[in-house]
Amino acid sequence: MDSLVNPVWHALGGEQSAWSEVHGSARRFRSDVAVFASVPDAPTADDWDSLRTLVGARQPAFLLRAPIEPPAQWTIEFRLGGLQMVAERDGPAPIDPPDRELLVLDVDADSGDVLDLIARSNPGPFRARTMELGTYLGIRDDGVLVALSGERLRPPGAIEVSAVCTDPEFRGQGLAASLVHAVMARIRARNEVPFLHVEASNATAIRVYERLGFRVSREIEGLRLVAPA
Length: 229
Hints:
The chain is 23% helix and 32% strand. By secondary structure, the protein is an alpha+beta fold. The chain has two domains: 2-82 and 221-226, Gcn5-related N-acetyltransferase (GNAT) (Aminopeptidase); 85-217, Aminopeptidase (3-Layer(aba) Sandwich), CATH 3.40.630. β2 (26-29) and β3 (37-38) form a beta hairpin. The chain is globular.
C-alpha cells in the first residue's frame, strides 16, 4: 500500500491518467475535475521544477500526501493536518440502514444538486466534474439531495471514499454512515481496498469510520503552496 503515501501522484500515473495534466515528473488533475497536484514520493529539485512549470510561476499547487517539506523558494499558504484511514480486510461493522433509498447519482443529471449539497455541508474540495472519477451515491428527501458519498482517488489497489456529507438539518440519522458502507461494498466487490481522509481534529467522524472498519494508517496533509517566480 505504499502508493497511499502519495495517492494523487500514483492515481494520476495509473487508472486516472485520462484526467491528468503532466509536465516531466509532476502531475495534476484537470482544474474542473479536482484541485490536486503532485510530485513523486521522494521529490528531487528537478521534480519541484517540473511542478513549477506545470502550475506556472506564482501559481498555487495543492498537494494531498504524507507530510513533506517543499523547497524554500515555495511559499506555504496553509497546511491542513489530517489522518488517512484504511478499511481492514475483515469488513466493516454492520450498521442499521436508514429507511431511505440509496441512489446512484448521474454526473450530468445530478451534478447541480450535488454541488448545492457540497456548498451547504462543506466536506472539502469538490469541482464541477469530480463525479467523473467514480460512482457517487446519494439520499434524497422529498426530492432534495440531503446526503452524499462517492469514490475519488484510485491509486493502485485502492479507492478513496470521498465527499462524505449530510445536509446540516439531516445529521444524526446515520445517512452518511449508510452511504459510506455502501460505497465500501462497491469497492470491495472490485477487489480493491477502501481508504479515506479525515481531519485529525474531527473525533466524531473518526469514531464513525472506525465503527465501519477503518483504522488510522498514517498522518496526511493538505498542503497549499505557491510556486516561485
